[in-house]
Amino acid sequence: MKILVLNAGSSSIKYSLFAMNDRRVLLNGILERIGESIAIHRYHVQDAEPVNLEIPLANHQQALQTLFSTLADSGAIRNGELACIGHRVVHGGELFKQPAVITAEVIEQIAGVIPLAPLHNPANLQGIKESMRLMGNVPQVAVFDTAFHQTLPDYAYRYPLPADLYIDHGVRRYGFHGTSHGYVAKQAADFLGKPLTELNLITLHLGNGASACAIENGRSVDTSMGMTPLEGLMMGTRCGDIDPALHFYLSRSVGLSLEAIETLLNKQSGCKGVCGENDMRILHDMADAGDQTAKLALSMYAYRLKKYIGAYVAVLGRVDAIVFTGGIGENDSRLRRQCCEGLSALGIVIDPDQNQAPDQTCSAIHSTDSTVKILVINTQEELEIAVQAETCLDALR
């Protein structure tokens, strides 16, 4: 069985084709700068050299036509071989606790939660509609970032606001990065040789966007991102937790519009706001060269991570393992060390040597003195989407 996974953004489409019998990537790529004068198409067919093309792509329709032509021309799929297309959808609201086979009704429901994810769901929907138009004979499944966190108890997902805002407008914590948190939790259980339903984990997805998740007996019970991906940890360009009254001050005293405040908090804050850069590799270089703003940004980032680790230890009571994942979590040994320093009272002790060179897929980096396991796991969100799409279709047979 072959499954294609699509992640459609406003100006890009990422894709991966999997052979599900052995979970192997047959082809993956990205179409970028869709709608600009010259777009970029980078892709890699298994056992071949990567390809990098500059081509005109006026819209998502042309981009997907190019994508499906590439799949056919490369020999990665032949007639009738594509069993399913799995679509990443950022927000499913409270409607979707599981993946869903895409129908006209599901499309309408995804559109209905656009107000909860106005920057993401429209692009996800555009990819779905064009894919359905071009490949309507192939079953298609929506997999939601928010679904993994639908197990949060009400006292964790409700905000202390008037009840009608939740009842009538859906104002609550939803959480994101659910496919990543869910995937690495399962990998941690396999690595530790225990059923996931018996494990308490703190998973840390650290990329340009970042979130923490408290997992009790395999179920998400709290997560740092909220109604939107802005809440929680300090991120590359997002502020994370701030005083909610700051919005009023920025409007009244600084004269910023609501749109300007939204841009400021989402795209000009976080590490970028503190030191002008959001690439952790550049931040470390700047800090090594003596830049005090970079040192401050790194300290703030690690400090806020520590606070969430401590909070989730309190939520879970017993923690079996902490999992680092995402581009930063998997590759930044210095940050991992920094955010685990001083946590020995919680049973969290990192091994400096193991931390320097973790395995590419899953490895332990805790000291023998640590009562809490510390793992670094390579997240594979596209594979998790493919697996969930396959499971969804199997349930219908």
TrEMBL record:
- What's the cofactor? Mg(2+); Mn(2+)
Task: State the Gene Ontology BP annotations.
Answer: acetate metabolic process; acetyl-CoA biosynthetic process
Instruction: Report whether Transferase shows up as a keyword of the record.
Output: yes
Q: What class of enzyme is it?
A: transferase
Q: Where does ATP bind?
A: 14, 205-209, 279-281, 327-331
A GO term from the CC aspect: cytoplasm
Reactions performed catalytically: acetate + ATP = acetyl phosphate + ADP
Cofactor: binding comment: Mg(2+). Can also accept Mn(2+).
List, in alphabetical order, the Gene Ontology terms for molecular function in this entry.
acetate kinase activity; ATP binding; magnesium ion binding
UniProt entry tagged with the keyword Metal-binding: yes
- Catalytic residues (positions): 145
Q: Which InterPro entries does the record match to this protein?
A: Ac/propionate_kinase (IPR004372), Aliphatic_acid_kin_short-chain (IPR000890), Aliphatic_acid_kinase_CS (IPR023865), ATPase_NBD (IPR043129)
| Main subcellular location | cytoplasm
**Residue sites binding Mg(2+) per the record:** 7, 381
Recite the UniProt keywords alphabetically.
ATP-binding, Cytoplasm, Kinase, Magnesium, Metal-binding, Nucleotide-binding, Transferase
Q: Where in the cell is it found?
A: Cytoplasm
Its UniProt pathway annotation is:
Metabolic intermediate biosynthesis; acetyl-CoA biosynthesis; acetyl-CoA from acetate: step 1/2
**Residues that bind substrate:** 88
* EC number annotated for this UniProt entry: 2.7.2.1
Q: Where is this site: Transition state stabilizer?
A: 177, 238
Going by the entry's taxonomy, the superkingdom of the source organism is recorded as Bacteria
Q: State the function annotated in the UniProt record.
A: Catalyzes the formation of acetyl phosphate from acetate and ATP. Can also catalyze the reverse reaction.
Q: State how it assembles.
A: Homodimer.
Protein family per UniProt: Belongs to the acetokinase family.
Q: What is this protein called?
A: Acetate kinase
